[in-house]
Amino acid sequence: MGIIKLKKMDLQNALDLVWIVFLEFEAPDYSVQGIEEFKKFISYNSMMKQFERGEITFWGCIVNNELTGVIATRGRNHICLLFVNKEYHRQGIGKRLFHTVLEECKSNSNCNTITVNSSPYAIEVYHRLGFVDLDQEQTVNGLRFTPMSYSII
């Protein structure tokens, strides 16, 4: 099991994994509007533009030459995607991906928190990682989320 920084050529594969996992585990908690909004958010063209401008960074977990998990950050400290293939749930992949982001953030002296807008499905995962709720669940454009934060200091 290895964590790598994903390149442009890996982006489509990463987004395919995100979409498959989203449909199975996240979509049941969302309205049709929310599902469509998420689909637009992870569209290849939109993500590629952000990737090329350096606004978003993707990391992936590779097991037996297969991409099994993905984490993406906006800037260094806002997690905007964290998805792990169903067959690899509860094997520490999400935790390893998060710790990669944590180490990246620690390498920047200006970074003292990591934030995420957690889906209902992932709240307990983030709590286990040490995140705390910043507010109650919100819904924007059909997307349900709870703002959360992880303090580095």
From TrEMBL:
E.C. number(s) listed in UniProt: 2.3.1.-
Gene3D superfamilies membership: 3.40.630.30
InterPro entries (UniProt xref): Acyl_CoA_acyltransferase, GNAT_dom, N-acetyltrans/Recomb-assoc
PROSITE patterns: GNAT (PS51186)
Top EC class for this record: transferase
Stored SUPFAM superfamilies: Acyl-CoA N-acyltransferases (Nat)
Keyword set includes Transferase: yes
Coiled coil: none
GO MF: acyltransferase activity
The protein, known as: GNAT family N-acetyltransferase
Lineage: Bacteria, Bacillati, Bacillota, Bacilli, Bacillales
